[in-house]
Specification:
This protein has 127 residues and is mostly helical. Helices cover 86% and strands 0% of the residues. The protein is elongated and about 60 Å long.
Length: 127
């Protein structure tokens, strides 16, 4: 039983890492592409609140994915906070389709974070 739980915890951890990394890469491509488009078109503002907030959230998401290799609980909590931060950002600053925007951008981080926390809990319980 313990070996089965440990295998499940490892699978959950790897699944969370893959989901988080794919979501972080997708998010980084969107943020970098948006910034590059603004720079090319000359429409840059020195510090746009929405852009800075998204940049901070993107950095936190990437940090959560990197931290997941050492501390699952901390990474899980950080990715859940990223999902909450995206929900708040989308709710305040997005135009239309808030739920759809959060499902595409925030839900993968919530799933990855909950998987990491569950994996940590399961591995702690079996250790």
């Amino acid at each position: 039983m313990l070996e089965r739980n440990q295998r499940l915890a490892r699978r959950m951890t790897w699944t969370a890492r893959i989901i988080g990394l794919v979501a972080a890469i997708f998010f980084a491509i969107i943020v970098i592409g948006s910034a590059a488009g603004e720079i090319i078109n000359g429409e840059t503002a020195p510090f746009d609140v929405a852009g800075v907030t998204l940049g901070i959230i993107a950095i936190a998401a990437l940090a959560g994915c990197i931290i997941s290799w050492w501390w699952e609980r901390l990474a899980g909590a950080l990715l859940v906070l990223v999902a909450v931060g995206l929900a708040i950002h989308i709710g305040i600053l997005a135009g239309h389709n808030h739920v759809l925007a959060w499902i595409v951008m925030g839900l993968p981080y919530l799933v990855a974070g909950l998987l990491l926390i569950s994996s940590w809990w399961l591995s702690r319980k079996t250790a």
